[in-house]
Amino acid sequence: MQFRARLILFFMLSGNQLLAQYDKVAALGSDASMTPIGGPASSPPISTEPYDLHDLRPTGELNDRVPGWLQFGLEERFRVEGDSGAGFKPNSSTSYLLNRFRFGVILQSLGWIKVVTQMQDARSFLQSPPLGPPNTVRWDLKLAYIQFGDVERQPVAIAVGRQLIDYNNTILADSQWRNQGRSFDGVVFKVHVDRFRAAVFAASIVNPMAGGITHHQEGNNVYGVYAWITRVLPQSSIEPLVLWRVAPKVAVEDSTAKSGRLDEKAYGFRLRGVNLRNIDYRYEMVIERGSAGANPIRAWATTGATGYTVRSLTWKPRLFAGYDFATGDKNPADGVRGTFDTMYQTAHDRFGITDQFGWQNIRAGRAGGTIIPRRRWSMTAQYVDMWLASATDAAYNSSGGIILRDVTGKSGKHVASELDFYGWYEINRQVHIGAGLGHIFPAEFIDRAGKGASLVYPYFAVEMLDGKRVR
Question: Which residue of 42, 96, 363, 460 is surrounded by the most CB atoms within 10 Å?
């Protein structure tokens, strides 16, 4: 710990006026960067405005002094968070510190061969035991893959090894807000021809452990095709997807067996547009079929959102609204699985920044606005209202676990509403700070099926990115 603290302190004290090599495509942990629902989840929007303070680029300076085929990347994130009313139980509160350190190396030769490795140390402090994922994953191998080709310069590329898969953060994402994030062991084949891109992949999610090099679970796999087609509609893209998920053991509705093999297919598409006379939008639908043991799967979900930016005003206010729906199980004993499976979705700001609910058995509406009172500083306020799609199914958390359930359906459908305030400020090109406060107001379902306490979630975060972007 002393060596690590000294290393971080050196990085924090060694900045200068030079420009960083890190090219900010999207903010670290910005799960909302690809989904125009609310405000930016982790850092202000990408901007050409100047920064208020000089750059802090120790890793960038190191990269200036080594050969171009060898590049280093550094990520450091510190977050303080907690909640009052955890589990919607009165007199229940917790607070703790989260720290995530990543250091990566990129070896790139001949312009078409790239080797990427990245180590990660994610830890929680002042948190009640047991300590483990997703907050504590000590000295793990986050990335380790080799890529042949570059689809920005060549028509095809293939990457093999441990990597990020984040083509669609609605149902397939790396979920960077989690302290350890998400990695996959797999093979990804990419194609880029003019306005058409596609990725064909076979992968298995890495199951994090509290310490040591983590591994994936044999037989728990996802296969898929994800495509992007641009310029079919003005300023928009069409993104079809096909996913096939298999797992050796899942819960089933059967009186003779409690579990069975998962064989699940998902078919869907997304329409996404930006800068349509200051309007951005997104619409997505996913249909799931297949089987869980002897149970057929019959589930679907949809989401849509739009935003309008008033660029003529000083603070460039952006108003947004969205709607989400995901099916639930109408009859828990009929042998048909009707609850939508979110697979590997983003875990942050799906239904408010408190991250208490997931995209399963839910109807939710959202509205809010974002302002930029100063360059590189954004502030967002939003309101989310959540209802069960089926009263006889459960309310689920962002990991797919059951929060509360009333199989009789007598507790009603109105789950809760949430009010959020949060903001992000870029100090310089490498260091960003953010803070937020979310408040959940329980409705009839939580009042009747649970304890009915309100939940309050505050956080404060500092993130640093320097050197080459390691992905």
Answer: 42
